[in-house]
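Quick one, probably user error.
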């Protein structure tokens, strides 16, 4: 049994039956903006609403073939589990929507409670003392060992409503110790498997070796669908030589370089709740205003959107690698892409 929110459930049903949000709004006689708010998770039908029943009635009449019926059965089994039973497709859809409605309303209730319990950083007008657990760490190896430890702490604690870990990668110089690299990636994978989402904010440049290492590091993380790399499209000198690991409600590792090189050599390890929220709010402000996603995930049921994006990308004119006539950079094998990057590097060094 797997809990899903009402927006996710409705989106999945619309995709399975190939019905648009606009078509649904007309069929159940509601404004299209209301259906869009349901789909985007901004609104949830109330328990006293008739919308769940009318949606189920309409969807049940539009199951046109066995493929749609099979996908509907798979969704029902995933959400309702072995305890779910229904005599027909209409009842399955109705129960799906009810389960998703109840879960969404409960999540909303918990969010309201948590907001009341949280302090507002903007309302603080006095200084806040750091906790006894806060410390300053020196040497790169110890700093990254602390980062792994911070992520492992997240693994053993249940993530709450704030379930996104923020990690940066601004520096040109990486970690030479392969064991630390593997340990960091393994800790991130474990955190993902325990419900955390990972956002990596990185700086893009012309360092080919750095790009290759990043691809190798990120490849197994991308496969999880919960790893979101972003590139920052505005930089300043103060960002160079700084890295951060921010785990909501657990801790922050803010790393710095005190030398002209970009290699970090000291870090502040903060467990103070105010400090953690400040860093968290900073990244939530930074992402929508100064960063762009490097990867877009498309669920299997949203194949049309993926194909549309693929065609649009092929039609755009811009800087890209093309190995041979009609070869697409989106379908280029990884080994060949790495070979092209190395070739470009050697050409730039001539």
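Nope, works fine. Designed sequence:
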């Amino acid at each position: 049994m797997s809990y899903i929110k009402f927006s996710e459930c409705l989106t999945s049903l619309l995709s399975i039956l190939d019905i648009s949000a606009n078509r649904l709004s007309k069929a159940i006689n509601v404004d299209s903006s209301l259906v869009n708010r349901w789909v985007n998770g901004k609104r949830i039908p109330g328990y006293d609403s008739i919308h769940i029943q009318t949606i189920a009635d309409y969807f049940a009449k539009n199951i046109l073939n066995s493929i749609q019926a099979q996908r509907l059965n798979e969704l029902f089994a995933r959400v309702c589990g072995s305890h779910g039973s229904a005599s027909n497709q209409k009842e399955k859809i109705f129960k799906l929507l009810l389960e998703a409605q109840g879960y969404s309303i409960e999540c909303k209730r918990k969010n309201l409670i948590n907001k009341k319990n949280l302090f507002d950083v903007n309302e603080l007008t006095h200084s806040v003392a750091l906790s006894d657990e806060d410390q300053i760490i020196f040497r790169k190896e110890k700093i990254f060992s602390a980062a792994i430890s911070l992520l492992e702490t997240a693994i053993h604690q249940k993530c709450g409503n704030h379930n996104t870990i923020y990690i940066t990668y601004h520096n040109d110089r990486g970690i030479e110790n392969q064991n630390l690299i593997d340990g960091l990636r393994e800790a991130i994978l474990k955190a993902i498997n325990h419900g955390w989402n990972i956002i990596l904010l990185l700086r893009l440049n012309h360092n080919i070796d750095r790009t290759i290492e990043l691809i190798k590091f990120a490849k197994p993380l991308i496969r999880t669908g919960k790893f979101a790399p972003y590139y920052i499209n505005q930089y300043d000198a103060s960002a160079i030589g700084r890295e951060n690991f921010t785990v909501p409600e657990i801790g922050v590792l803010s790393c710095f370089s005190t030398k002209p090189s970009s290699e970090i050599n000291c870090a502040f390890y903060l467990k103070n709740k105010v400090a953690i929220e400040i860093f968290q709010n900073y990244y939530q402000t930074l992402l929508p205003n100064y960063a762009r996603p490097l990867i877009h995930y498309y669920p299997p049921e949203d194949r049309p959107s993926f194909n549309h994006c693929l065609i649009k990308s092929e039609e755009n004119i811009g800087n890209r690698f093309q190995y041979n006539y009609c070869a697409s950079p989106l379908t280029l094998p990884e080994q060949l892409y790495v070979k092209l990057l190395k070739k470009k590097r050697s050409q730039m060094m001539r």
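The first helix runs from residue 6 to 17.
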